[in-house]
């Protein structure tokens, strides 16, 4: 008996599509003014409290 031969088929190649990269805004995010100063003041108050408590 003769075995059937499978004819090779050429699959179409799919080119990868690139997504456009969204442009980042040059403006920095708005920050709350003095927010870091609040942590510094609280830190100084804690240190002052601990030093005063020891004396």
In the predicted model, the low-confidence regions spanning at least 5 consecutive residues are none
Percent strand? under 5%
Indicate the structural class.
mainly alpha
The coarse overall form would be: elongated
Rg calculated over all Cα atoms: 35 Å
Helix-strand string: H
Fraction of residues in helix? 25-40%
Distance between the termini: 106 Å
Average pLDDT confidence is 79
The number of E-state strands comes to 0
Query: How would you characterize the largest beta sheet?
Result: none
Please report the number of helical segments: 1
Structure description:
With 55 residues, the chain is mainly α. The protein is 36% helix and 0% strand. It is built from one helix and no strands. The protein has one helix spanning 35-54. It is elongated, with a radius of gyration of 35 Å. The protein starts with 34 loop residues before the first helix and ends with a helix. The model has no long low-confidence stretch (mean pLDDT 79).
């Amino acid at each position: 008996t003769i075995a059937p031969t499978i004819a090779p088929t050429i699959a179409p190649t799919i080119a990868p599509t690139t997504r456009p990269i969204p442009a980042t805004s040059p403006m920095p995010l708005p920050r709350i003014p003095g927010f870091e100063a609040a942590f510094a003041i609280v830190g100084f108050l804690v240190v002052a409290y601990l030093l005063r408590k020891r004396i």
